[in-house]
Write a structure and sequence with these properties.
The structure holds two protein chains of two kinds.
Chain A lengths: L4 H7 L8 H14 L3 H17 L20 H6 L10 E9 L2 E10 L4 E8 L2 E3 L6 E3 L5 E2 L1 E6 L5 E6 L6 H4 L1 E12 L2 E2 L10 E2 L4 E12 L5 E2 L6 E3 L2 E10 L3 E9 L3 H4 L2 E2 L6 E2 L1 E6 L9 E5 L6 E9 L4 E9 L3 E9 L1
Antiparallel strand pairs in A: 1-2, 2-3, 3-8, 4-9, 5-6, 5-9, 7-8, 9-12, 10-11, 13-15, 14-15, 15-16, 16-21, 17-18, 19-22, 20-21, 22-23
Chain B lengths: L6 H5 L5 H19 L3 H18 L10 H30 L15 H14 L3 H12 L4 H8 L3 H22 L1
Helix pairs in contact in B: 2-3, 2-6, 3-4, 4-7, 6-8, 7-8
Classes of the chains: A alpha+beta, B mainly alpha.
Chain lengths: 337, 178
């Protein structure tokens, strides 16, 4: 059947298409990273050897990186969940000034579960839309920035991004953070006197261009023993991976018998609604440690892959605690060395 | 434009991750570019969709359908999940920050033909996610209506009608704006 003019225009539409070669390289490297551990390690050693022999120095920036003690403020490390890994945070010191705002990438931390960027802004800012910040590595791959926190009193900002892909753990990573819009956030009051009196009023968005490069190593995680499976009503939980690094604990598990939509339901309570399902990670002192997480899979499939991420502050027994309204709760222990 | 391979070429042999990427990455990337709200989102969607397919490649069973239908169902699910995720992230981002002024477009850098395509693309991006997905599968990835139907869970006739309705809505949008 012949196409009409609009259909022909759509078929021939010139759009900025992602580079298939780069996407393929990313996908194959990620797929390899999720493979079985011993295979990944053997392959990694092989590739690392070849890489070094080929002297592709550009792609191996970690050679001169030292993970040293850094003079980064304790509060910034605390906000970032990096108190347990202060000596593993790479001091960066990259500075970029645009539109009257000076941004410094103070430090960066990367492990097999997350990437954390510590930024200091003068004057204090919040990140502004519509263009979200981007993070790329030396292979041109982009990493989703899944959260940020700004402190309007100190000018400190913490950005959380997904973990850097293989082979960055071997070669080290040369990353670049690009920010295109910020907004000043003048605050009054003192958190030390009375946090409730602190008032912050973000100003209008200001477009600019801040490019902040960093070279850092990637902390390899350690695999820990898997907790026993659990069942809550129709939902069955099977733990597939528990990994810990200097600063992070990540738990992966499969859930069958319920859909993502069912687990994400909230019961109206006149406020934000109460979650029917919760799963959290608690540290040795009983405090919640992070609690980030999510799930992969189609929302209608009764087979999900979920992950739970928390901060590792100290060795000891960490607890996974789950509740499912109407079906009960379970608790599992992770022993972190 | 990429020529799509007939399904038998892949179904007759073992489907490998390398082969999957080599043959389908261009059309998946083009689909992502048309369906996503920005080039960054398109990049992420193409990566996520192909990664899911590569990780699931061993579970592909040729007795249950063609490799193309299997792949595009994964891609469509990725696009749906990505749209939900982006919506949540964007909502959070906007809550944490605030509405920002729109950036002005630079018209000097582009030739007329390119601008027209950019304009058309901008109109597509304003359509509903479902309409964008149908048009991106049909015209971005170059699938026929039966293949589009298989990817989104419709029969061929219904998929054809849905595509025509999406085209009608796009035409109406273009008429209103010009």
């Amino acid at each position: 059947m012949a196409l009409d003019l609009l259909e022909q225009r759509l078929a021939d539409l010139a759009v900025d298409t992602p580079d298939p070669g780069r996407v393929t390289a990313f996908v194959m490297s990620r797929a390899a990273r999720r493979g079985r551990r011993h295979l990944a390690r053997a392959a990694a050693i092989g590739v690392a050897t070849v890489t070094l022999m080929a002297a592709v120095l550009y792609f191996a920036p970690a050679a001169d990186v030292v993970l040293a003690d850094t003079p980064i403020a304790r509060e910034l490390l605390r906000d970032a969940g990096l108190l347990g890994a202060g000596n593993r945070v790479t001091a960066v010191g990259a500075v970029s000034t645009s539109s009257g705002f000076r941004l410094e990438l103070v430090g960066a931390y990367a492990d097999s579960t997350r990437t954390v960027l510590l930024v200091h802004a003068e004057p204090p800012i919040v990140l502004a839309g519509p263009d979200m910040p981007t993070l790329t590595d030396q292979f041109g791959r982009s990493y989703f920035i899944n959260g940020s926190m700004s402190n309007g009193l100190t000018g400190n900002i913490v950005l959380f991004a997904e973990p850097l892909a293989w082979p960055d753990a071997i070669t080290g990573a040369r990353i670049t953070l690009r920010i295109k819009a910020v907004a000043a956030i003048p605050c009054t009051g003192s958190a030390s006197v009375n946090p409730a009196d602190v008032k912050c009023n973000p100003g209008p968005a200001v477009a600019g261009s801040w490019t902040l490069p960093a070279t850092l190593g990637v902390e390899e995680g350690t695999r820990l023993a898997l907790p026993d499976p659990a069942v809550l009503g129709p939902a069955s939980f099977r733990f597939t991976s528990v990994r810990t690094s200097a600063a992070t604990i990540e738990v992966d598990f499969d859930v069958t018998g319920v859909t993502g939509e069912e687990l994400s339901r909230r019961i109206p309570d006149g406020k934000k609604g109460a979650a029917v399902f919760t799963i959290e990670l608690f540290g040795p002192n009983g405090e919640r440690v992070g609690g980030g997480g999510g799930w992969h899979g189609s929302s209608n499939d009764k087979a999900l892959h979920m992950y739970l991420q928390g901060y590792r502050f100290a060795p000891g027994e960490y607890h996974i605690h789950a509740t499912y309204l109407g079906y009960g709760e379970f608790d599992r222990v992770i022993r972190v060395p | 434009m990429e020529v799509a391979l007939g399904p038998t070429e892949l179904d007759s042999g073992a489907l490998t991750a390398d082969e999957l990427c080599r043959r389908y990455a261009p059309s998946v990337c083009r689909f992502a570019a048309m369906v996503a709200g920005s080039s960054t989102d398109a990049d992420d969607l193409a990566q996520d969709a192909l990664l899911r397919a590569v990780r699931a490649v061993r579970s592909y069973d040729s007795a249950r359908g063609t490799a193309e239908a299997w792949l595009w169902r994964i891609v469509v699910n990725s696009a749906r999940d990505s749209a939900r995720r982006r919506e949540r992230a964007r909502a959070l981002f906007e809550r944490l920050t605030f509405a920002a002024p729109r950036e002005s477009e630079s018209v000097e850098d582009a030739v007329l033909a390119r601008l027209r395509d950019a304009d058309l693309h901008a109109h597509i991006r304003l359509m509903s996610h479902r309409d964008r997905m149908l048009l991106a599968l049909r015209y971005g990835a170059g699938l026929d209506t039966a293949e589009v139907g298989a990817a989104v869970g419709l029969n061929s006739d219904t998929a054809g009608k849905a595509i025509r309705r999406a085209l009608g809505r796009l035409r109406a949008r273009l008429e209103v704006s010009h």
